[in-house]
Write a structure and sequence with these properties.
Largest sheet: 10 strands, mixed
Distance between the termini: 129 Å
Low-confidence stretches: 1-12, 29-78, 212-367, 484-495, 631-643, 1080-1248, 1435-1442, 1455-1459
Helix content: 25-40%
Number of helices: 55
Shape: elongated
Radius of gyration: 46 Å
C-alpha cells in the first residue's frame, strides 16, 4: 500500500496489527477476532482527527451572501437601478402596486398559482430576514442536479396579480429588490416555498442552481444529494406531511403526491423515500428545531396543477402505473392515533401521510446514474431489501421499485455524529474534530459484523458506538472541557493518522472477512450505481443467500466517499420494511390481504401439513362422531372432590372471594403527595391557586375511547364513595350520576366538555380537578385536526379539549395527567413543571419496607428478574417452535405481512391444541408446547373447582381485522369440538362492550351473588374466575384492567416492528399483577428442588457448571447466537426449520426441561407443563406418592411440587429428580421449546384438586413474547438496563441529539424525567410542539400536574383518594378549631338573692342592673389554672365539694401543657367569620388592598383595636365579612420591630406602633397605651366639637378591644312561655359582628356602663348560663370599653398575664358597671403561633441558650452568681408566682377559708391558692373582710394610697407570710419602713429575693416575712 500519500499508517504498527488479525482469523472458526481498524483506531489513547473535518462544513449563510460561484460580485461595477414610475410604491417588501409580498405576512393567505408555476422565495438585500413570495414558471427553474433550466425568466407578482414578466430585471424592479448588482434569478431566487401541516406557506428547500447548491464535492460534505422534486417534470401535483429533520430523527417519511388531471384514474404509484436533507440552518446537523419542516412538498392549492406532459422521462421509467401502493395517505383512524411517525431504534417508523386515497411516494432524493431494480426481486429473495443511504450521492432507482425500500435513517445518524463536537465548541472549548466519514462507516461495518443472525440492527446501538468511539478518540480534549475553564488557544491538533478513503474498502473488507459472509462489502470504482447493480445481480443469482448486510463503498473521487448499506437478510429486511408502515397503514395492508384472498395460500399450506387432510374435515368428522355427547376426557372428573355446599345446595368455592375494597398504604401516600403538590402551588408567591376561596371539589375524569375502560372507571368512582364524600351526590348514588363525572374522549366528548367548562365558570368557588387518565394516548396537536378534521374528527381531541384557552386560564381548574408512561409529556417543551410531577413511591429503601402491604406488585422489572438463573418462576418466555414456523412461512410467503402469518400460525396452533386435548392426539404435533400448555390448563382448570372457576388466557391481537379472524376461527373450532360450555371466547374491542354467552353470564352471576336479571359483565374485572380466551384487539391498550384469574398473557402477536419504550411497556403492562407478599417469588426456602434453576435440573453433564454457555439442541447450527443467549441461561433455542413445530424423534433436552411449578411455599403453579400423567383415575393419594428425592417434599393439593416428568433421570451435580413414566408430548421451557416424543393417548396435565383462584393471588401470569421483544427485554446495555429502556421513549417525540448519555440503572423516576426533558423534543404533530419556551419556568402551566406509576398498580384509587382528602382539606380550610370549654367554677358561683329576671329584655335596664352584685369568680376556662378570687359570700363554703375539686386542679400539670390540653371543636366558617391573610375573595379584595375603595351606608361607631404579636399571617384581622361589609375602623396594635411585616400583610389597616421600649412588653402595655391614646383622642375631639356647639357627652366614648383570635360571633334566641316563667327554650345561631355592635351601640343608657362584653361560646352551654340575659361579672377577649368612665382606672402596663382580670377588679372597685351580654357569644380560634407563646425564657448567656430553664430558676438571691435570664422581670415574677407561690405562702396552700390578701392588684398565685382583692383607693368598693383571717399578704408595687393604717384593718393568721415586691432594693426598704411592717412581721436577711435578671435589665426585688 506504500507511503506515497499523506495520512498513510505507520507501517510497523499497521503490519503488526494486520498479522495478528489474520492469524486470529485462521485459528478460529467461532470466535470473532477484533477487526483491525478497532485495534488501530478505538484505543482510548488514540486522538483521531479527520483530514476533511475543517473543509467539509456547510454554511448556508455563505451561500446566501455570496454569488454561489456563478459570477463575480464587484463593487466597482455597481448596478444602476432604473427610476421607478411616478406614484408607485417603493417600500421594501412590497411590490410597486403597494401589495405586501413578505412571506411572514401572506403565509396564511390563499394564493392563486397558474398551472406550471411554482411559488419561490426571493432574497432582498435590503430585507435580509425576509423572503419575498414570487410565482415562477417551473421551466425556468433547475432540476435536482442544477440542470435543464431554460434561459430567461417568466413570472407573476402574487401581490397585485400582474402577470407576464419576461425579464428578471423587470420583475426585480417591480418587487422592489433594489439591487446594487445585475439582477440574476440564480442569485436571488433562493428557496422553494411549501405548505406545512398547518397549511401555512413556509420556506422549503434551496433551489439547486448549477454550481450553487451542488458546487463541488470538496466544498461540502453535507450536500443535498438528490432532488426533492423528481416528479415535477412528470405528472401529478404534490402534497406532503411535514417531517422533522432534527438530530436523532430515526425516520423514513413516505411523501405522497395525489395525481390530478388525466392521470387521476391511474392506480397508486409508490416507492419509499426519506426526508430531504439540506444545507445550512435547516440541516439535521443543527440541533435546533426548525419550524419549517423540510421534507414537506408543495400543496396543490399553493403550487398549482402541473400539466400532464406525457410519459415520464427516462430516469423515471421505473414508475410503473401498475405498482401497488405500499403506503396510503390519511391519518390513523380511531384508536390508531398513536401515529408512530418515526422509528424508535430497530427500524424506521414512517410519518403518517395526510392526503387522499390515491397517492404516490416520491423516491429518495438522488443524483447520478439510474439503477434498475430487477423484476421478481421479492419473489427470488423472499424479502424486500432495505437500502440505507449513507454518505454522499445516492443514485436513482428505477424499475421494480415495489420490491425495494430506501431509508435516510443511517444518513441522519451519521449527520448527528458529525455534530457531536459542537456541544463542546458551543461552550468555548477548543475545537474538537468530529468523527470522520470513513471511521463512521468502519464502525458501522464492525457493528454489523457483531450482530447475530437473529438480531436486527438498532440505530440507538450504532449511535452509542459512534459516540463512544469519538469520546475515546478525544479523551484529552473532553477532560479539558469538563474540568478546566475554556482555553484561549486551541491545543495542537492530534498527530494520529486518520483512515483515508483509499484504505476504507480494504479495512471494511478485512473487518467483514471473519463473519461467515454475514456482511458483504462491495467496492465501486465510479459511483454507488455500479455497486447497487452488482448487489442486485448477486441477489438474483442467489449468491447473497447467507448475507444479511451489503456495504457498498465508492471512495474514488477527491477523497470523498459515497456509501450505502443494504439489508438483505430475510429476517432483518422483513422487519425493517414492515416497520415503515404507520399503524393505520399496517392495518390497511392487513385488511387488503384479507379481503383480496391473499391469505388463502396459508390455509392450503396448513392443510398440507395435516396427515389426515384438511383440519376442517377432521373437525367435521369429529363433530359427527361425538354429536350428542362431550368428550369423555373432559367430562370425567379426574379427582373426587368434596365440595362445600351453601344453604341452597349450591357448591361453594372457598378460594373465590372478592377483593375487599379499601385504600392501600401506597395509594394513600400518593394521594398525600398529590395534595402536597397542590398546596405547594397554592403557597407559591405566584398566586396561581387560591385554595382559601374554594368551598368544595368537583372533578371530571377523561379517558380514551374504550368502552371497557369507561365502565371500569365508572365502577371505581361508584364504589369509592368519592361522590358522597365530596358532597356531589346523596344516597343512593346512581350509575347515571357517576357517569356525569367520567368522559370518554370520543366524537361526542366535545359537548360534555363544554358543559364542564360552563359549570366551572358558573361556580368560581368550586375547585375542579380535570383528570386526564391514560395521558400518553392521543397527544396529537389540534393544528393537525384543523387541517384534517373532515377525515377524522377525533384527531387532536385531547389537545383541543384539555389544552384549550378556557382550561388554561380558569383559576379554579387543576389538570392532573395520569399515566404509566409519562415520557411523551417529559420533553423540552412540556407544559408540566418538573416540580409538579408525582412519581409512584418505591417499596423499599435501604432494605426497609416503607409501606407495609400484604401484596407485592409484580411489574416489568420483576418479570425480567424472574428469568434470571436461580429463580423459581420464569415468567417471560418465547415460543421457539412458533418463531421457527413463522420464519419458515415468511420465506415461503414473502408478500404477506408477518402479522398475518403470525396470527394464522398462532390460531392454527390454538386450534390444533384444542383438538389434541379434546381427543385428537394426532394434532399435538401441529401445535407448540407453549400453546398446548395454555390450552390444557384452560380446559382443565374448571375441573379443579367445585364451582367451575377457571383461568383466563389473554390473546393480544393488535390488528382488529386479524382479531376478528382469530375470534371466528377459534369459535368455529370450539363449536365443532362441543366445548361451548367449557370456556368462553371473548372479542375485546375498544369501541364496543363485552359480549358473553348466557351460560357464562349465569355462572358469573351465581359466583358474584348478583340477582339483577339484566346484569351483564361490562369490564374484564367482572370476568373473575371465568374460563375464557380474551382476544384483546386495538393498536394500543387503553388502560383496561384484567382479573386475577389471568394466567397466561399471550403477546406473541404484538407488533414487534414498532419498538418504542411506551409501546413495549404498555403491552407488557397488561400482565402486571399483585401477588401475596407472604409468598416470596425469589428463591424457595422449603423446597430445595424448586430453588434450583432449570439449567441444573436439565443438565445431563454432572461436571457442567451453571455459568457456562449452554449446549444447543440436536440439529442446531453453529451460527453465532445473540448476546442475550450468552447472558441468560434460559434463552437456548431449538433448531429453526419450517417444520420445527412437529415433534422430533430424538431431541436433546433443553435447559429448562423441568418447569418449576409453584412458589417455594404453597400451591401448584397456574401454568404447569403440558406433559404429565392423566388425571383420570389418579387419586390424591397417588399424587402424594410423587416425591422429590431431596427434602421429600410431597406433591399434593396443599404442598409445593413439581410436575411429573417422562421416564428419564435428570441428574445435577447434587440432586436428582425421579418421577414415574408418564405419557407425554412436549415439555415447556422458559424461553425455549424442547420436544420429547413419547407415545400417548391423551394430553391431560396433572393438576392438584385446587381452584385456580386459590393460586391467583400467589402467582403472576406467564407472558409469551415474540423472540425479538424477548431479546430486547433480556439483553442489557452498558448501564445495566434492558435495551428496551434506551429506545425512543415515544413515537411522538424525538431525540435532540445522539450526544446523550444512556439512562442509568440507578436513576430515580425524577432523574429519568429530567433526562427526557433534556434529551427529547416533541415532533411537529405533538400537542406540546408549539410550546417553544424550552424549559423556562414561564412555559410551564402552573395548575398542571403529572402522576406516573407502573401499570395496574392502583393509580385510579390513588387519585380518587386524593380527591377525598383534597375535599377534606378544603373543608378544613373553611373550618377552624375553636375553643370549646365549659365555664369553670360554676359550682362556686355566688348565690345572690337578686337576679335579672327580665328574660326578654334586649338591653339591660340600668336600675335593675345596678342592684345586681358583682361576681368576683373567674368563669373563663382559659383561667382554669388561675387563683380563685374570694368574696364574703364564698367564705362560709370553705371546703365544699366543688371547691375541693377546684383546689385539686393542676397539681400534676406542666406549664407547657396549658395550651395543648385545652378542648377544641371544629366549626365551619360562616359567612360572617373573621379571616387571616390566607383568605382571598372577590368581595374583600379591595378591603385587603392598599387603596380601599369600598363604601358602605352602614357605619360602626366604635373603633376596634387589636393587640397582636407574632401573628401577621394567622391573626384574624380581616373583619370585612364579620362586619357584613359595614364601614368600620380597625387598628392593629403592634410592636415596633414587627411593624414592617404587619404592614406588608395588612396594608389597608391602621397600625398603632408601640414605642421601642415596649418591644419586650406584654399585653398590658398594649392595653394601657390603647386606653391612654383613646382618652387623649376623646379629649381632643370633645374640644374640637365643643367649638362647633356639640356637647362633650355627645361624643361617642366607646372602643372595642378584641383579641386577634376572635373568629365568629353568635346570638341566642330565647323562647319564653311567659315573662316570669322559669321554663324556656333557646337556640344559638351565627350572626355578624355588625349586628352585635349595632345592637350594643343602640343600648339605652349605654354610657353608664364602663365595660361591656359577651360570653365565650361552648357547645355544652347550660340553660342557666343564657337564661339571664345579662350578668355583672368579668369580661374577656372581646370588650367594649368606655374610655370616658374609666379615665382614672388604668391597665397595668407591666403585666403579661391576667391583666384583664386585674383591670376588671379595678373597674369594679371604682364603682363602675361591668355588663356581660349572655345572649351573645364569641368563638375564639385556636392559633398555635404567636400571642403569649411568643415569649421564651432562656439563659442570657449564648452558650447556655439551649439549656431548659424551669420556673424555680426565675428568682434568685441578690448578689448571687445565679444564671441570669433573657426575659422581662415582670414575666419572670408572674411565671414564678403562678407555679411556685407556695414557697412564699405555705399556709395558703389549699386554704380557701384563709386566702392571701392582695392589695390593688391581682396576681395569679396558682390554682391552689385563693386571693382576696382589695383596693386602697378612697371610696372604692371592697368586700367586707372584718370576719376573715388571711394567710398571707401580697404588696405589689404599692403606691402612696397604701398606708400603715390601711393594712391594720385586716387580720392575719399566726405564721402568715408577707411578700413585698418593689422595683429596687432601696424602694423595698423604704416601703417596709413606710408601712411599719416590722411591727407585725418578722424579716430575715435571707428572705430577700430578686428576679433572675442582670442589673441592666432592672430586676424586681421582693422581701418575705412571717406574721408575729
Amino acid at each position: 500500500m506504500g507511503n506515497s500519500y499523506a495520512g498513510q499508517l505507520k507501517t510497523t504498527r499497521f503490519e503488526e496489527v494486520l498479522h495478528n488479525s489474520i492469524e486470529a482469523s485462521l485459528r478460529s472458526n467461532t470466535l470473532v477476532p477484533r477487526p483491525i481498524f478497532s485495534q488501530l483506531y478505538l484505543e482510548a489513547e488514540q486522538q483521531l482527527s479527520s483530514l476533511e473535518g475543517s473543509s467539509r462544513v456547510d454554511n448556508e449563510e455563505e451561500e446566501e451572501e455570496g454569488d454561489g460561484g456563478l459570477e463575480p460580485s464587484s463593487l466597482s461595477n455597481a448596478y444602476q437601478l432604473p427610476p421607478p414610475p411616478e406614484g408607485c410604491c417603493t417600500t421594501d417588501g412590497f411590490c410597486q402596486a403597494g401589495k405586501d409580498l413578505r412571506l411572514v405576512s401572506i403565509s396564511n393567505e390563499p394564493i392563486e398559482v397558474p398551472a406550471g408555476f411554482l411559488l419561490v422565495g426571493a432574497k432582498s438585500p435590503s430585507l435580509p430576514d425576509h423572503l419575498l413570495v414570487c410565482a415562477v414558471d417551473k421551466r425556468f427553474l433547475p432540476d435536482d442536479n442544477g440542470h435543464n433550466a431554460l434561459l430567461g425568466f417568466s413570472g407573476n407578482c402574487v401581490g397585485c396579480g400582474k402577470k407576464g414578466f419576461c425579464y428578471f430585471t423587470e420583475f426585480s424592479n417591480h418587487i422592489n429588490l433594489k439591487l446594487t448588482t445585475q439582477p440574476k434569478k440564480q442569485k436571488h431566487l433562493k428557496y422553494y416555498l411549501i405548505r406545512n401541516a398547518q397549511g401555512a406557506l413556509t420556506k422549503g428547500p434551496l433551489i439547486c442552481w448549477k454550481g450553487s447548491e451542488f458546487r463541488s464535492r470538496q466544498n461540502s460534505a453535507n450536500t443535498c444529494s438528490s432532488s426533492l422534486f423528481p416528479l415535477l417534470e412528470g405528472s401529478g401535483s404534490l402534497a406532503a406531511f411535514p417531517s422533522d429533520p432534527v438530530p436523532g430523527t430515526n425516520s423514513i417519511v413516505p411523501v405522497r403526491a395525489q395525481q390530478a388531471g388525466p392521470a387521476s384514474d391511474h392506480p397508486s404509484l409508490t416507492t419509499v423515500t426519506g426526508p430531504a436533507v439540506f444545507n445550512g440552518k435547516d440541516s439535521p446537523k443543527h440541533p435546533q428545531l426548525v419550524k419549517n419542516n423540510l421534507s414537506a412538498l408543495p400543496r396543490p392549492s399553493a403550487l398549482g396543477i402541473l400539466p400532464n406532459s406525457g410519459p415520464p422521462k427516462k430516469r423515471h421509467k421505473g414508475w410503473s402505473p401498475e405498482s401497488p401502493s405500499a403506503a396510503d395517505g390519511g391519518f390513523p383512524q380511531g384508536g390508531g392515533n398513536r401515529a408512530k411517525h418515526e422509528g424508535s431504534g430497530m427500524s424506521c417508523i414512517p410519518q403518517a401521510g395526510l392526503v387522499g386515497s390515491t397517492s404516490v411516494t416520491i423516491p429518495v432524493v438522488a443524483s447520478g446514474e439510474p439503477v434498475s431494480v430487477p423484476d421478481n426481486l421479492l419473489k427470488i429473495c423472499k424479502a424486500k431489501p432495505v437500502i440505507f443511504k449513507g454518505h454522499g450521492n445516492f443514485p436513482y432507482l428505477c424499475g421494480n421499485l415495489n420490491d425495494v425500500v430506501v431509508s435516510p435513517l443511517l444518513y441522519t445518524c451519521y449527520q448527528n455524529s458529525q455534530s457531536l463536537s459542537r456541544a463542546y465548541e458551543q461552550h468555548g472549548a477548543s475545537t474538537v474534530q468530529p468523527i470522520s466519514q470513513e471511521m463512521q462507516l468502519l464502525l458501522t461495518v464492525y457493528y454489523l459484523v457483531q450482530l447475530a443472525a437473529d438480531q436486527v440492527p438498532l440505530m440507538e446501538d450504532l449511535e452509542q458506538i459512534l459516540l463512544r468511539s469519538w469520546r475515546e478518540s478525544h479523551l484529552t480534549e473532553i477532560r479539558q472541557y469538563q474540568q478546566a475553564p475554556p482555553q484561549p488557544f486551541p491545543p495542537a491538533p492530534s498527530t494520529a493518522a486518520p483512515v483515508t478513503s483509499a484504505q476504507l474498502p480494504w479495512l471494511a473488507g478485512l473487518a467483514a472477512s471473519s463473519c461467515n459472509d454475514s456482511v458483504h462489502v462491495i467496492e465501486c470504482a465510479y459511483s454507488l450505481a455500479e455497486g447497487l447493480s452488482e448487489m442486485f445481480r448477486l441477489l438474483i443469482e442467489g449468491k447473497l443467500a447467507k448475507t444479511n448486510y451489503v456495504v457498498i463503498i465508492c471512495a474514488c473521487r477527491n477523497a470523498a466517499i459515497d456509501s450505502c448499506i443494504a439489508v438483505t437478510g430475510k429476517y432483518q429486511a422483513r422487519i425493517l420494511s414492515e416497520s415503515l408502515l404507520s399503524p393505520m397503514e399496517y392495518q390497511r395492508e392487513v385488511h387488503y390481504e384479507l379481503v383480496t384472498g391473499k391469505v388463502d395460500s396459508l390455509g392450503a399450506f396448513f392443510s398440507s401439513l395435516c396427515p389426515e387432510g384438511d383440519i376442517d374435515i377432521l373437525l367435521d368428522k369429529f363433530h359427527q362422531e361425538n354429536q350428542g355427547h362431550v368428550s369423555s376426557s373432559l367430562t370425567a372428573s379426574s379427582i373426587k372432590k368434596t365440595a362445600m355446599l351453601d344453604a341452597g345446595g349450591v357448591p361453594v368455592c372457598a378460594s373465590y372471594h372478592l377483593e375487599p375494597r379499601g385504600v392501600r398504604p401506597f395509594q394513600l401516600a400518593v394521594a398525600q403527595k398529590l395534595l402536597s403538590h397542590v398546596c405547594s402551588i397554592a403557597d407559591s408567591s405566584t398566586q396561581n391557586l387560591d385554595l382559601g376561596s374554594f368551598e368544595k371539589v368537583d372533578f371530571l375524569i377523561c379517558i380514551p375511547p374504550s368502552e371497557v375502560t369507561y365502565q371500569q372507571t365508572v365502577f371505581h368512582v361508584w364504589h369509592s364513595g368519592v361522590l358522597l364524600e365530596l358532597g356531589l351526590e346523596k344516597e343512593p348514588v346512581t350509575k347515571q350520576r357517576v357517569e356525569q363525572h367520567v368522559l370518554k374522549l370520543d366524537v361526542e366528548a366535545q359537548a360534555r366538555f363544554k358543559a364542564f367548562l360552563q359549570n366551572s365558570f358558573q361556580n368560581p368557588h368550586t375547585l375542579f380537578i380535570l383528570i386526564h387518565d391514560h395521558a400518553h394516548w392521543d397527544l396529537v396537536s389540534s393544528a393537525v385536526h384543523n387541517i384534517y378534521s373532515q377525515s377524522d374528527p377525533s384527531v387532536g381531541l385531547v389537545d383541543r379539549l384539555l389544552n384549550c384557552r378556557e382550561v388554561k386560564e380558569a383559576p379554579n381548574i387543576v389538570t392532573l395527567h395520569v399515566t404509566s408512561f409519562p415520557y411523551a409529556l417529559q420533553t423540552q417543551h412540556t407544559l408540566i413543571s418538573p416540580y409538579n410531577e408525582i412519581h409512584w413511591p418505591i417499596s423499599y429503601s435501604n432494605g426497609v419496607d416503607l409501606y407495609h402491604e400484604n401484596k407485592k406488585y409484580f411489574g416489568l422489572a420483576e418479570f425480567i428478574d424472574s428469568t434470571l438463573s436461580g429463580h423459581s418462576l420464569p415468567l417471560l418466555r418465547y415460543d421457539s417452535s412458533f418463531e421457527a414456523m413463522v420464519t419458515a412461512l415468511g420465506k415461503r410467503f414473502p408478500r404477506l405481512h408477518s402479522a398475518v402469518i403470525r396470527t394464522f400460525v398462532l390460531v392454527q396452533h390454538y386450534a390444533a391444541a384444542m383438538m389434541a386435548v379434546s381427543g385428537l392426539p394426532q394434532m399435538k404435533n401441529h401445535t407448540s408446547v407453549e400453546t398446548l400448555e395454555i390450552t390444557q390448563n384452560l380446559l382443565n382448570s374448571p375441573k379443579q373447582c367445585p364451582c367451575g372457576h377457571g383461568l383466563m388466557v389473554l390473546l393480544r391481537v393488535p390488528c382488529s381485522p386479524l382479531a376478528a379472524v382469530a375470534y371466528e376461527r377459534l369459535a368455529h373450532v370450539r363449536a365443532r369440538l362441543a366445548l361451548e360450555e367449557h370456556f368462553e371466547i371473548i372479542l375485546g374491542n375498544p369501541s364496543s362492550g363485552i359480549t358473553v354467552g348466557k351460560h357464562f353470564v349465569k355462572q358469573l352471576k351465581m359466583w358474584q351473588k348478583i340477582e339483577d336479571a339484566e346484569w351483564r359483565p361490562q369490564t374484564y374485572l367482572e370476568l373473575e374466575g371465568l374460563p375464557c380466551i380474551l382476544i384483546f384487539s386495538g393498536m394500543d391498550p387503553h388502560g383496561e384492567s384484567l382479573p386475577r384469574s389471568l394466567r397466561y398473557c399471550d403477546l406473541r402477536l404484538i407488533n414487534s416492528s414498532c419498538l418504542v419504550r411506551t409501546a413495549l411497556e404498555q403491552e407488557l403492562g397488561l400482565a402486571a399483577y399483585f401477588v401475596s407478599d407472604d409468598i416470596p417469588l425469589e428463591k424457595g426456602t422449603k423446597n430445595e428442588a424448586l430453588e434450583s434453576d432449570g439449567e441444573k435440573l436439565s443438565s445431563t453433564d454432572e461436571d457442567e457448571e451453571a455459568g457456562t454457555e449452554g449446549c444447543f439442541e440436536a440439529g442446531s447450527t453453529s451460527e453465532k447466537r445473540s448476546p442475550v443467549k450468552r447472558e441468560r441461561s434460559r434463552s437456548h433455542d431449538s433448531a429453526s426449520s419450517s417444520r420445527s413445530s412437529k415433534a422430533s424423534g430424538s431431541v436433546l433436552y433443553g435447559e429448562s426441561l423441568v418447569q418449576p411449578l409453584g412458589p417455594p411455599q404453597g400451591e401448584l403453579a397456574r401454568s404447569p407443563p403440558p406433559c404429565g400423567p392423566s388425571e383420570e383415575g389418579r387419586t390424591p393419594g397417588e399424587m402424594q406418592r410423587l416425591r422429590v428425592s431431596q427434602g421429600s417434599t410431597v406433591i399434593s393439593r396443599n404442598s409445593p411440587g413439581l410436575a411429573p416428568q417422562p421416564d428419564c433421570s435428570l441428574r445435577t451435580n447434587r440432586r436428582s429428580l425421579q418421577v414415574p413414566a408418564t405419557p407425554s408430548s412436549q415439555l415447556s421451557s422458559s424461553g425455549s421449546s424442547s420436544t420429547c416424543a413419547v407415545p400417548t393417548a391423551n394430553m391431560l396435565v396433572l393438576q392438584a384438586s385446587q381452584c385456580s383462584m386459590a393460586k391467583a393471588c400467589r402467582q403472576p401470569p406467564v407472558v409469551f413474547l415474540p423472540k425479538l421483544v424477548y431479546d430486547m427485554l433480556l439483553s442489557t446495555d452498558s448501564s445495566g438496563l434492558p435495551k428496551a429502556a434506551s429506545l425512543l421513549p415515544s413515537p411522538s417525540v424525538m431525540w435532540t441529539s445522539s450526544f446523550r448519555p444512556l439512562l442509568s440503572k440507578t436513576m430515580t423516576s425524577t432523574e429519568q424525567s429530567l433526562y427526557y426533558r433534556q434529551w427529547t423534543v416533541p415532533r411537529s404533530s405533538h400537542m406540546d410542539y408549539g410550546n417553544r419556551a424550552e424549559g423556562r419556568v414561564d412555559s410551564f402551566h402552573p395548575r398542571r400536574l403529572l402522576l406516573s406509576g407502573p401499570p395496574q398498580i392502583g393509580k385510579t384509587g390513588a387519585y380518587l383518594q386524593f380527591l377525598s382528602i383534597l375535599s377534606r382539606m378544603l373543608i378544613r380550610l373553611t373550618e377552624v378549631d375553636v375553643y370549646d370549654e365549659e365555664e369553670i367554677n360554676i359550682s362556686l358561683q355566688e348565690e345572690s338573692d337578686w337576679h335579672y329576671l327580665q328574660l326578654t329584655d334586649p338591653w339591660p335596664d340600668l336600675e335593675l342592673f345596678q342592684k345586681m352584685p358583682f361576681d368576683y369568680i373567674i368563669h373563663d376556662p382559659k383561667y382554669e389554672d388561675a387563683s380563685l378570687i374570694c368574696s364574703h359570700h364564698q367564705s362560709i363554703k370553705s371546703e365544699g365539694q366543688g371547691l375541693g375539686r377546684w383546689l385539686n386542679r393542676g397539681m400534676s400539670r406542666k406549664p407547657e401543657d396549658l395550651y395543648m390540653r385545652r378542648q377544641t371543636a371544629r366549626m365551619r366558617l360562616s359567612k360572617f367569620a373573621a379571616y387571616n391573610t390566607y383568605h382571598h375573595c372577590e368581595q374583600c379584595h379591595q378591603y385587603m388592598g392598599f387603596h380601599p375603595h369600598y363604601q358602605s351606608y352602614e357605619h360602626i361607631k366604635s373603633p376596634t383595636f387589636t393587640p397582636t404579636t407574632g401573628r401577621h399571617e394567622h391573626g384574624l384581622f380581616n373583619l370585612y365579612h364579620a362586619m357584613d361589609g359595614a364601614s368600620h375602623l380597625h387598628v392593629l396594635v403592634v410592636k415596633e420591630y414587627e411593624m414592617a411585616i404587619y404592614k406588608k400583610y395588612w396594608p389597608n389597616h391602621i397600625m398603632l406602633v408601640l414605642p421601642s421600649i415596649f418591644n419586650s412588653a406584654g399585653v398590658g402595655a398594649a392595653h394601657f397605651l390603647i386606653k391612654e391614646l383613646c382618652y387623649h383622642n376623646l379629649e381632643l375631639e370633645r374640644s374640637r366639637q365643643e367649638e362647633l356647639g356639640i356637647k362633650p357627652q355627645d361624643i361617642w366614648p366607646f372602643i372595642v378591644i378584641s383579641d386577634d383570635s376572635c373568629v365568629m360571633w353568635n346570638a341566642v334566641d330565647v323562647d319564653c312561655a311567659g315573662e316570669q316563667s322559669r321554663e324556656f327554650s333557646w337556640s344559638e345561631r351565627n350572626i355578624s359582628l355588625k349586628h352585635i355592635m349595632q345592637h350594643i351601640e343602640a343600648s339605652p343608657n349605654i354610657t353608664h356602663y364602663a365595660l361591656i362584653g359577651m360570653r365565650k361560646w361552648a357547645s355544652k352551654t347550660q340553660s342557666s348560663e343564657v337564661r339571664e340575659p345579662f350578668s355583672r361579672c368579668h369580661v374577656h377577649d372581646f370588650i367594649i370599653l368606655n374610655v370616658d368612665l374609666t379615665q382614672n382606672v388604668q391597665y397595668n402596663q407591666n403585666r403579661f398575664t391576667c391583666d384583664d382580670v386585674d383591670f376588671n377588679l379595678r373597674v369594679h372597685s371604682a364603682g363602675l358597671l361591668l355588663c356581660r351580654f349572655n345572649r351573645f357569644s364569641v368563638m375564639k380560634k385556636q392559633i398555635a403561633v404567636g400571642g403569649h407563646r411568643s415569649f421564651h425564657i432562656t439563659s442570657k448567656q449564648v452558650s447556655d441558650s439551649s439549656v431548659v430553664i424551669v420556673p424555680s430558676q426565675y428568682i434568685c438571691a441578690p448578689d448571687s452568681k445565679h444564671t441570669f435570664l433573657a426575659a422581662p422581670a415582670q414575666l419572670l415574677l408572674e411565671k414564678f408566682l403562678q407555679y411556685h407561690s407556695h414557697r412564699f405562702f405555705p399556709l395558703s396552700l389549699k386554704n380557701h377559708s384563709h386566702p392571701v390578701l392582695s392589695v390593688d392588684c391581682y396576681l395569679n398565685l396558682g390554682p391552689q391558692i385563693s386571693v382576696c382583692y382589695v383596693s386602697s383607693r378612697p371610696h372604692s368598693l371592697n368586700i367586707s373582710c372584718s370576719d376573715m383571717a388571711f394567710s398571707g399578704l401580697l404588696l405589689y408595687l404599692c403606691d402612696s394610697f397604701v398606708g400603715a393604717s390601711f393594712l391594720k384593718k385586716f387580720h392575719f393568721l399566726k405564721g402568715a407570710t408577707l411578700c413585698v415586691i418593689c422595683q429596687d432594693r432601696n424602694s423595698l426598704r423604704q416601703t417596709v419602713v413606710r408601712l411599719e411592717l416590722e411591727d407585725e412581721w418578722q424579716f430575715r436577711l435571707r428572705d430577700e429575693f430578686q428576679t433572675a435578671n442582670a442589673k441592666e435589665d432592672r430586676p424586681l426585688f421582693f422581701l418575705t416575712g412571717r406574721h408575729i
